[in-house]
Write a structure and sequence with these properties.
- A 5-stranded parallel beta sheet has the order 10-9-11-12-13, with helices on both faces. Strands 15-16-14-17-18 form a 5-stranded parallel beta sheet, with helices on both faces. A 3-stranded antiparallel beta sheet has the order 1-3-2, with helices on both faces.
- Helix 8 packs parallel to helix 9 and helix 15 runs parallel beside helix 16.
- Helix content is 38%, strand content 19%.
- The chain contains 17 helices and 18 strands.
- By secondary structure, it is an alpha/beta fold.
- The chain has 3 domains: 101 residues, Alpha-Beta Plaits (2-Layer Sandwich), CATH 3.30.70; 211 residues, Succinyl-CoA synthetase domains (Rossmann fold), CATH 3.40.50.261; 186 residues, Rossmann fold, CATH 3.40.50.
- The longest helix is centred in the first third of the chain and has 23 residues.
């Protein structure tokens, strides 16, 4: 007999990452039909209502209360799932403090009093409360990684104006990744402490989460040191925010004796904001990747390049990197896979977990195959719904795909369902995927994706081009994840840009285009 129930913990705030982890733990428990871990904010209660939970137990819950909710096959499965969610929610906190959920510091100020060596606060509360918590952190003398989305633009500007006056960084809102003095925050990759002899270090400033991960992971794989990765939030270089945090971050790296070159990454910025940011590079050479912006007057010591790969290559050359060996035999590999495709398959379907990677792929493919449609389009006229048989790239990490469910970097099941749906479309020639490694990502994403990819490619089906973003030091191990996908028959280029070129070459049956990005 089916069972449904909730467990409420008053005053036990969890950030978004822990809520996702608890949700995944409950969903993966045997006999579970639906599960969710939320804070009892209006938005959280709305998500629970969507799952059928509106009972008396929730009527008195407040925004600071944690709610675990499960629908399962029976009472035993229900209790097991709730317990799994509870362990996932509080295991890390108990390990760090030696106590249970009730023993955590009650405020940022209390946390700083008990540990005066703290320097960064990670704020991941619902957007309507995030700015206030970030101000508390600034008052306590901390830098802020503002993981939360949904922060009003006016509040972001106010926060960043204050932080600039205090000389503190506000990384975000919506800042998914940072690596500060070797410590990864959010979705962060792990860099090797060793680098090639005679090669310097690059500091990264990014208004693009997976853009920051892509360039820093490439640099690490090519033997270049990465001093810092500072994510400033996707709106920072907009006309309104005017690069307030990017300017401070670039100025900080420019003055940092451990940083030999600066790499700035963003989706299309306001040209005025971009110019003001680059003007902060006064003594350190710099490279800028402003995806979709190719015409900008740069200071003398700043190079402007088109793709994330070109940005990493240019920054690496500035600090003495030896040229990496890339993409040998690509044309032949593309020709072989093109010969396997049924003649009617001509379109590209992208299923991305990284928004910036999806955006870069659109930029490249538009120049090869024409209009590309997306939920996060390059151009407004190329939004969804797309025309029949159009090229479509989806950012599955966007809010409409993650509302009430874990991010695809954490839990790939949603992407697996979409992959299976592609098998029923006789027009799709190529499926383009990213696989993002690092802290907070799934423990074995390639292992989850590979069997479905192999099934998809059988009997003249679409070919899978998969890019793995990661390092050898990541928990999932870059080379191991690549090998799993290659063994399944996927084509796995070394960069996201090259994966996009390969996808275009396959769809057009023009293998020579795969070399266009070299």
């Amino acid at each position: 007999m089916s069972a449904a129930g909730v467990r409420v913990q008053p005053g036990a705030y969890l950030d978004s990452l822990l809520l996702m982890s608890a949700t995944v733990a409950m969903e993966q428990s045997a006999g579970v039909d639906w599960a969710g871990a939320v804070m009892a904010t209006p938005r959280g209660l709305e998500e629970l209502a969507g799952g059928g939970f509106t009972g008396d137990q929730l009527s008195t819950a407040s925004a600071n209360d944690l709610v675990l909710a499960v629908r399962a096959d029976d009472e035993e499965a229900l209790e097991a799932a709730l317990e799994a969610g509870w362990r996932a929610a509080f295991a890390e906190r108990e390990q760090a403090t030696g106590h249970g959920a009730d023993q955590a510091p009650a405020s940022i100020a209390e946390a700083v009093r008990t540990n005066p060596d703290l320097s960064v606060a990670v704020v991941s509360v619902p957007g309507e409360y995030a700015a206030l918590e970030a101000h508390h952190a600034l008052t306590a003398g901390l830098h802020v990684l503002l993981f939360s989305d949904g922060v009003p633009l006016a509040q972001e500007i106010e926060l960043k104006e204050r932080a600039s006056e205090l000389g503190r960084l506000v990384m975000g809102p919506g800042a998914g990744t940072a690596v500060l003095s070797g410590t990864g925050l959010g979705f962060a990759n792990v860099f090797s402490p060793r680098r090639a002899a005679g090669v310097g270090t690059v500091g990264v400033v990014a208004a693009a989460g997976t853009g920051a991960q892509e360039v820093s992971a490439l640099l690490d794989r090519w033997g270049v040191g990465v001093s810092q990765v500072i994510g400033v939030g996707g709106r920072d270089l907009s006309e309104e925010v005017d690069g307030r945090m990017a300017r401070l971050a670039v100025r900080t790296l420019d003055e940092d004796p451990a940083t030999d070159a600066v790499l700035v990454v963003s989706k299309p910025p306001s040209p005025k904001a971009a110019a003001r940011v680059l003007a902060q590079c006064r003594s350190t050479p710099a490279v800028a990747v402003f995806l979709g912006l190719s015409d900008l007057e740069c200071p003398r010591d700043v190079q402007l390049v088109r793709t994330l790969e070109q940005g990493a290559l240019a920054a690496g050359r500035l600090v003495g990197m030896a040229e990496p060996r890339l993409s040998a035999g690509v044309r032949e590999a593309v020709a072989d896979r093109a010969a396997r495709l049924d003649p009617g398959r001509r379109t590209i379907r992208g299923l991305f977990s990284g928004g910036t990677l999806c955006y870069e792929a659109q930029l490249i493919l538009e120049g090869l195959v024409g209009p590309v449609y997306s939920n996060e389009p390059l151009r407004k006229q190329h939004g969804l719904p797309a025309p029949e048989d159009a090229h479509v790239l989806l950012d599955l990490g966007a809010e409409e795909y993650t509302r009430g469910v874990p991010h695809p970097m954490i839990e790939p099941s949603g992407r697996l369902e979409l992959l299976r749906e592609v098998a029923d479309d006789p027009h799709v020639a190529v499926v383009l995927l990213d696989v993002v490694l690092g802290h907070c990502s799934h423990a074995d994403p390639a292992g989850e994706l590979a069997p479905v990819c192999a099934e998809l490619m059988s009997d003249g089906g679409p070919q899978v081009v998969a890019y793995v973003l990661g390092t050898e030091s990541d928990p999932q191990v870059y080379s191991r994840q690549r090998a799993i996908l290659e063994e399944a028959g996927c084509f796995v280029p070394e960069t996201n840009a090259r994966a996009a070129y390969a996808a275009g070459a396959l769809a057009l049956r023009q293998p020579e285009l795969a070399d266009a990005g070299t």
